[in-house]
Design a protein that fits this description.
heterodimer, A: alpha/beta, FAD/NAD(P)-binding domain, six-stranded antiparallel sheet, 23 strands, 23% helix, disordered C terminus, B: 206 residues, mainly alpha, oxidoreductase activity, acting on CH-OH group of donors (chain A), flavoprotein (chain A), oxidoreductase (chain A)
Chain lengths: 677, 206
């Protein structure tokens, strides 16, 4: 291993990149996505030597790399979430285009994920520096307090070992770290979220879209029933909190205010959302939070090594994690790898719910409860779409700026999955691939080139028809809560491997009947809303290549999409017999091995999960810091005691009382004990 | 948008190919006359006006006319392309009256290209009839072709991911839409339990 960073320049942060420069680290973080980046940030700031191993490339963390991703996106035929990010055969990512619906229903899964379930797991993720959050939408609703106890309260799914109150402070910390714009008072009134008195978000809420106002004018205060025998639910359009730069709120932080964080790699840029309307898959100005912004503030004790695919977590016979084995490669197009090991006192898996589970399974770790890989969840999304009576200005602003939150909570959860309704600002882009499909349709171009084509319209007629149609496009996105079910799972199968020989995830996925009832209820609510809006409903579900999520339920055609919210695969609980991690996201079976991210969540409510994931990562960072501090004070206990018996290295870990033998710029300039927050 | 004032088409590199004779290497190094687009490109734009419903100024302003013409020539070959032009001229320039399926599919493809920046898949029968040796797959001609797509302008929009209109613009009614009452954004801090809620203290975000 080299002792100095590889040539090729440093990103904007103070951290190192290239190859590991130490024999041993305090912490190894596997994955440089949202969770891993936050854990590395906190622990680096506290003086710990952190090695971050990222399977993908780091082409995105320079401004030229970002511009290359923009051009890749512009040129992509299908502008799906992963479209700006280049394919990597050494660390392949699933893609939503991998799924193809079959003519008579059912689906076929090509690509990285092997699927053998009744229904498709319809979400992708991204293995590259920054992770899947590079293409998130950026919505940051908190979970509702009742979401944490669905088993106790409503009799389904799994409960968290902690509650909203335990996480509230970390929600605020995450809202600072990600830079959230929102209206806390509105969240409190409309949804019932508890906040500390006087709390405001770092920035004022993102302005509502004209579409939001049109919908609110017709819906606010109107009671609807999702079925004739159901209780009334009052509709209300509520602004959504975003991790997107808006106008800073001078009242934030006791009047200290907030300074928006701009683009990574280009100073004084992206400090306000300018309405590019492409948050997914890429924000051109980086006004939307991404982990590269946090990485730009990483301490010099953090070393980022990309193109390092962790293939195994190493542990001794007592269950103590020793480090990881990883495969380094140079060329993502033609991977040839070399195998290395890295050692640390604590290992943190932060590689995505599915990848974390895959690594635990491959390493044969954390298996006592039998829950590793199980309880795979996502937010199945029901799309409905139609035409409004007048132009509404679609394809402007962030993808969604408001929603209807009335169906997220309450006793109806006993019989059907709850849902959150996002009012879409981007027309039929998701349900129908507009505006491309509109152009093709009017020109008579069919999806199947073997079919006869329509005559098509041209010239002014074409221009007018497109303007009149697209300008009135409207759609709703219903995000349903999926409950933890042990049958929905990730496994590995030695017969299915990727180019580096690592077993690919095998997914078994289905929707429960209560979830299907929720989808049917969502459709009923959509029908009512379209009626109130006097909109022309164009929603139609049927089998076909673009509907891999099509199914029939109680005589009704339905179809769902993935939300990109994979969760549950290393589920958190209060017993080592029934869960994989404890409430610190620490593996029950391995006291110095953490698995962080959405995979720890026992339930995911109806809120987009990234904020909750960030809050959990910040919370775990505190515990990791405490454990490292304990391990290292006094150092002689560690070296003389039995706990280090399995160490691969004679190197004395942690802050040395005297100048350290370790190489590096300043690994010991701040003794850890002095930086306790 | 007034690129004619700031960037004469004679300086647009993509236009170069049509003003130089590929058979004459000296033409590449010869001083460029400050001329407009070549007659061939002018003719292509005239046809494209009838295909798209946008005027010549708008089409030239994309900076892509020469590239689109070259793409079409490359995709269908010069013979089919000239036949398309001739058949179109024979029906008075109205693409809606084209009867030959090959020329009609070329018309579809060109309109598709202008509106989306994407050369589409041709009808399989046309692909076969043309004897094409390239894959019949759609592709975006260049990153700029996507951002210059005409479709966004049909509804007063901008291409997703480019030409951003600015913070908060999405709140305004688009042309032709009625104003709707907008509830005042509260922007209040969270009130404590049992306390009277404070009135607005700071300005709204918009």
């Amino acid at each position: 291993m080299s002792t100095s960073p590889r040539a090729g320049g440093q990103p904007t942060g103070g951290h190192r990149t290239g190859t590991p420069h130490l024999r041993r680290y305090d912490v190894i973080v596997v994955g440089a996505g949202l969770s891993g980046t936050l854990v590395a940030k906190r622990l680096g700031d506290q003086g710990w030597r952190v090695l971050v191993l990222e399977a993908g490339t780091r082409t995105l963390d320079t401004w030229p790399g970002h511009l290359d991703a923009m051009n890749t996106y512009y040129a992509a035929s299908a502008k799906v979430p992963n479209s700006p990010y280049r394919a990597n055969t050494a660390a392949p990512s699933p893609d939503v285009l991998d799924l193809v619906g079959l003519p008579g229903g059912g689906f076929r899964a090509n690509g990285y994920l092997v699927q053998n379930g009744a229904l498709p797991y319809g979400s992708d993720y991204l293995r590259a520096n920054g992770g899947t959050v590079m293409h998130w939408l950026g919505l940051t609703p908190r979970m509702h307090p009742e979401d944490f106890a669905v088993r106790r309260t409503f009799g389904y799914g799994r409960d968290w070992p902690i509650g909203y109150a335990d996480l509230e402070g970390h929600y605020r910390a995450a809202e600072r770290e990600l830079g959230v714009a929102g209206d806390a008072q509105e969240q409190s009134e409309a949804i019932g979220l508890p906040f500390p008195e006087g709390y405001v978000y770092p920035m004022h809420r993102i302005p509502r879209s004209y579409i939001d106002d049109v919908v609110a004018a017709k819906l606010d205060g109107v009671p609807v029933r999702e079925s004739p025998d159901a209780a009334e639910t009052t509709l209300r359009v509520v602004t959504t909190p975003h991790a997107r730069n808006s106008v800073p709120d001078a009242r934030y932080d006791g009047g200290r205010g907030y300074r928006p964080v701009g683009a990574a790699g280009l100073p004084n840029y992206g400090e306000r959302c300018v309405g590019n309307a492409s948050c997914v898959p890429i924000c051109p100005v980086q006004a939307k939070y991404n982990p590269l912004k946090t990485q730009a503030t990483w301490d010099s004790r953090v070393t980022l090594v990309t193109k390092a695919v962790v293939s195994r977590v190493l542990a001794d016979g007592n269950g103590r994690a020793l480090g990881v084995e990883y495969q380094a490669y140079d060329d993502p197009a033609a991977p040839v790898h070399t195998t290395h090991t890295a050692e640390a006192d604590i290992v943190v898996l932060a590689a995505h719910a599915i990848e974390n589970a895959r690594l635990l399974l491959v390493s044969r770790l954390a298996g006592h409860s039998g829950q590793v890989g199980r309880n795979l969840m996502d937010h199945p999304v029901l799309l409905t779409w139609g035409l409004m009576r007048h132009p509404v200005g679609p394809f402007r602003g962030p993808a969604s700026t408001s929603g209807v939150e009335s169906f997220r909570t309450g006793p109806a959860r006993r019989r059907r999955a709850p849902f959150r309704i996002e009012i879409a600002n981007w027309g039929w882009s998701w349900p129908a691939s507009s505006p491309g499909s509109d152009v093709a349709r009017l020109l008579g171009i069919t999806g199947d080139s073997g079919q006869p084509r329509g005559r098509g319209v041209f010239g002014e007629e074409l221009r007018r028809a497109l303007g009149e149609g697209i300008g009135r496009q409207f759609s709703l996105q219903f995000e349903l809560e999926q409950e933890a079910e042990s049958r929905n799972r990730v496994t590995v199968d030695p017969r299915h491997r990727d180019r580096l020989g690592n077993p690919r995830p095998v997914i078994t996925y289905d929707l429960s009947d209560r979830l299907k009832r929720g989808l049917a209820a969502a459709k009923a609510v959509s029908d009512r809303i379209f009626g109130l809006l006097e909109a022309e409903d164009h929603t139609a579900y049927g089998p076909g290549p673009f509907s891999p999520g099509y199914f029939r339920f109680e005589g009704q055609d339905l179809s769902f999409n993935g939300a990109g919210h994979g969760a549950g695969t290393h589920v958190m609980g209060d017993s080592r017999d029934s869960s994989v991690v404890d409430h610190w996201q620490r593996c029950w079976d391995h006291p110095n091995l953490y698995a962080v991210g959405c995979g720890s969540m026992p339930s995911i409510g109806t809120s987009n999960p990234s904020l909750t994931m960030a809050a959990l990562a910040l919370r775990s960072s505190e515990q990791i810091h405490r454990e490292l501090t304990g391990l290292h004070r006094p150092v002689t206990v560690r070296t003389g005691g039995g706990t280090g018996a399995g160490d691969l290295s004679p190197h004395v870990p942690g802050p040395a009382p005297s100048p350290a033998p370790a190489r590096g710029p300043s690994p010991h300039s701040h003794p850890h004990q002095e930086v306790r927050p | 948008m007034a690129p004619h004032h700031t960037a004469p088409l004679s300086q647009v590199p993509s236009d170069l190919a049509d003003r130089t004779d590929p058979a004459d290497p000296a033409a590449l190094s010869a001083p460029r006359a400050p001329a407009g687009p070549s007659p061939a490109v002018e003719r292509f734009v005239e046809v494209s006006v009838r295909l798209t419903g946008f005027d010549a100024f708008d089409l030239h302003a994309t900076g892509l006319a020469a590239l689109y013409r070259a793409t079409a020539l490359d995709q269908v070959g010069p013979e089919a392309f000239e036949r398309f032009l001739a058949e179109l001229a024979a029906v008075g320039g109205d693409p809606g009256r084209l009867e030959g399926e090959t020329s009609r599919d070329i018309a579809r493809a060109l309109a598709h290209l202008w509106y989306l920046g994407v050369w589409p898949q041709l009808a399989r029968s046309v692909h076969t009839a043309l004897g094409r040796e390239k894959a019949n797959v759609p592709f975006t001609v260049s990153p700029e072709a996507y951002t210059e797509g005409l479709v966004w302008r049909t509804f007063h929009g901008h291409p997703a991911g480019a030409k951003a209109p600015g913070f908060g613009t999405w709140s305004e009614p688009p042309p032709g839409a009625p104003p709707v009452p907008r509830p005042a954004a509260p922007g209040r801090p969270v009130a404590g339990p049992g306390k009277e809620r404070e009135e607005e203290t700071a300005g709204d975000a918009v």
